[in-house]
Amino acid sequence: MTEKDHLDFLSAKADHLQAEKNNTLKALEAICSARSFNVSLNKLEDHNLILESAFNKMLTLARFKNAGFMLVDENTGSFTPSMFFPQEDKDLLLGEIERLITDGTFAMAVKSNNTTVIKSRELRSHVLLHAMSTVSRTRGLFIGQLSTPKEEIPDAVFFLVTLVMNETAHQLESFELYNRNKETNRMLSESVRRLEASEQKLRNFNEKLEAEVYNRTKELKATNDLLENEVSERKKIEKLLLQQKEALQELNETLESRVAVETENRRKSERILHEQSKLAAMGQMMKAVSHQWRQPLNALGMIIQDLLDEYDEHGISKDYLIKNVDKSLKLVMHMSSTIDDFSALVRSDFEKDSFDLVTAVREVISLVESQYNGQGIFFEIESAESCDKNLNPEGIIVCGDSGMFKQIMINLLSNSKDAILQRLESGRAEHGLITIRMSCGGETAKVDIEDNGGGIPEEIIDRVFEPYFTTKRQGKGTGIGLYISRLIVQEQMRGVIEARNSFNGAVFTLHLPTRTD
């Protein structure tokens, strides 16, 4: 290439970059000048104004022949048609959506949460797709038929499209939360009205009761005067007292056997509660396994579907087949390791009287971490040098059964998860965090499980280990998890479990005896 050709090439490249810069600035100016959505939520009857505002902003970024919105039904999880511009092109766009669902483009656009532009054979033009998603879930999908080719639209426009769609998704979520709060306030007002009526009835009852007490007091005074004049009744009373004394002696003689019976009944009740707690922990573990299997199963499904597509388009080469077989085997091995984690968690080593504390904790975290991460809850594990296997190969050997200890950990982590999810749903926290600290000294090891779930009210924190006492909503908890955990720690492991509040949540501490031999 001559020097003149090189200069011409650089000049053409500079002109191209300048044109891209001008197009980007125009797109930014357009989106900044677009009418912002400033209607109060309490003035909205439905989400139409939100969708119209989003479409007007989209028009400032690109030209569309037609466009429409599909919203996700929260109860069924399916996409339903909502608004179309113009309305008469609704069937045309729905037909295109059916084709995109069939070839898998629709699912890809929803999953990517980025701008997707494809060439439609039926419409003979480019079609733009973009999901409307928030952290909690996908709210819907925008589809628009472009009036200009994709190549004429600057890349910055597609980035701005993502901003508009994310903003629209958050506006839809805010509108939905506002309606829920509105209904909750209505129900609270109705409850207050019923409570006021109950208070009035109680006041009337108290007035009636006071009158009754006055009359009864008057009658008792008259009776007392009569008894003072009936000295002859004293002998009957003394005889009755003697009979009661004999009955009390007989009761004392049989008290020991009754205490033994009541003690056995209490042990049976505790065994039943233990089994109930164990089933609840099993339920938590099964949820974790289900969550860890869902992603590799979806990946296997995509590999199988891709095999068919590759066969139809190019045929399947040996290298391609080997590559996909390796991917599938890795997914299968991952699922197999999940089964090993689950088996290790439910195994109860009754023949062993000790276990490695650090290993047991990490096995529990390995099983539930993926499920909790998917709900916005993350783990931090901190351990002292004496608990680090790289520095101390023998680890921390704790007295007790590892299966029972893992059941306690499942119960405590489940309680932390429920508290954190309530804060995430209310918007009082951006993410959940559970911190597990392990330390040891002398003949005792300590495990702290701390969360950022807001803590336990101080007026009830001393009651959290009572049987059937729970702070969760009805149907969300049995109130036996912490009670069984305390029984296992105190009676089976000869340790101590405590509850307290930290700056931003609750802290449960286990003090466990270590093996000294």
TrEMBL record:
Its EC number is 2.7.13.3. GO terms for molecular function: ATP binding; phosphorelay sensor kinase activity. Pfam families: HATPase_c. Keywords: ATP-binding, Coiled coil, Kinase, Nucleotide-binding, Phosphoprotein, Transferase, Two-component regulatory system. It catalyses: ATP + protein L-histidine = ADP + protein N-phospho-L-histidine. PROSITE patterns: HIS_KIN. Residues 288-516 form the Histidine kinase domain. The keyword ATP-binding applies. SUPFAM superfamilies: ATPase domain of HSP90 chaperone/DNA topoisomerase II/histidine kinase, Homodimeric domain of signal transducing histidine kinase. The keyword Lipoprotein does not apply. InterPro entries: HATPase_C_sf, HATPase_dom, His_kinase_dom, HisK_dim/P_dom, HisK_dim/P_sf, Sig_transdc_His_kin-like_C. This is histidine kinase. It comes from Seleniivibrio woodruffii. The lineage of its organism: Bacteria, Pseudomonadati, Deferribacterota, Deferribacteres, Deferribacterales.
